[in-house]
Amino acid sequence: MRARIALIVVAASGCFYTEPINQRPSASIIQASSAAVFRGDTVTLSAETHDPDGDSVYVAWRAYTCSDGTTPAGCDAAPYFQSSSVDISFPAPALRADAVTPTESLRVILEATDSHGATAEPEQELLITVNDAAPTVELRAASSYGFAVGTPVDFYPQVMDADDTASTVFLDWSVLGPAYADSFVDTPPLGKELVVSTPGSWDVQVIATDPAGRSMMADKHVDIVPDHPPCLASWAPLAPPAGQTLPMADPTLFEILVVSDDLDPYPPVVGDPIRGTTTFSWSLLPPGASARVPLAGVIGNSVALDPASYDPGDVIELRVEIQDRTHTPVECADSDPTCSVISDPTCIQRLTWTVEVQ
């Protein structure tokens, strides 16, 4: 049985029927997204419609930002979002239309009209409370000096907040470690610089709190290490394998090209107030001698040898040892052409050239 009501009209010539009366459609709002909405979140809604006559139903959405969505006076006069789609998604703005007042609620209106122009009554209304979003914070640690004791470690927070600027978010810092920090000072714009003289595991925490009191914590773990010995990285000429000699027929410059070290590298870093440079100690084992002779006054990275100062067939050992500011002793046996004072055999502090004069 159709839901339309037919109107019967009686005339002198007989009876006839008019078009059935069109009935209004109905509509409801289905909230597909979470009921807890924060500023910056996306709201997802759907329109559910029904028409008693089976007619097509068209929808129209309007969404307003509000301080108090229970009355139209508490909302902006113009909608910030409109759509004619059944399924919609739109953001929950942080601020109302004046770009100053925080959004505290949304007022969503749904109108439904069928293909004959009948409109659902009353129009559907949904009030959505918009909560203050907590800030987010991520923490990054960086060191230009290999996280060595006594050198600065910088901590950089990345603060974001959907409804507050980073400058209004308060940061509360703390340091946890095996001892007291030597210093923990501000670095612009929002960071911190940590200096400690105790090796070990250290944790830096920061709590970001927005004006509404919502907060989030970030934690960064760093391992502060002792100042490691320097490492010979590049030299010329190449040293011969053990048991072999390097022939020298012309004046030759023996030099260390690169020393790798977090604090005292070579070549030195110009203008860095913390970094120093490598110390070079050169010695020579003359032909037929049993004791090495330190090359007094030679403190640079190179030594020149002239075969004219020797006889053909003479065998000479030229040795260099390097140290940084900690002056870790190179205590390997004198007969060892190379020496590593740490567990890494690729990081050597002694190099020996065995040269045969030709």
Task: Note the gap between the termini.
Answer: 120 Å
Low-confidence stretches: 1-12
* Radius of gyration, CA atoms, in whole angstroms: 41 Å
Helix proportion? under 10%
SSE class: mainly beta
Order of adjacent strands in the largest pleated sheet: 4-10-9-6-7
| SSE string, helices as H and strands as E | EEEEEEEEEEEEEEEEEEEEEEEEE
DSSP helical segment count: 0
Task: Tell me the overall shape.
Answer: elongated
Core attributes:
358 residues, five-stranded mixed beta sheet, disordered N terminus
Give a written overview of the molecule.
There is one protein chain. The chain is an all-beta fold and 358 residues long. It is built from no helices and 25 strands. The strands form 7 sheets. The chain has a 5-stranded mixed beta sheet, with no helix packed on it. Strands 19-25-24-21-22 form a 5-stranded mixed beta sheet, with no helix packed on it. Strands 11-12-15-14 form a 4-stranded antiparallel beta sheet, with no helix packed on it. A hairpin with a 3-residue loop joins β14 and β15. It is elongated.
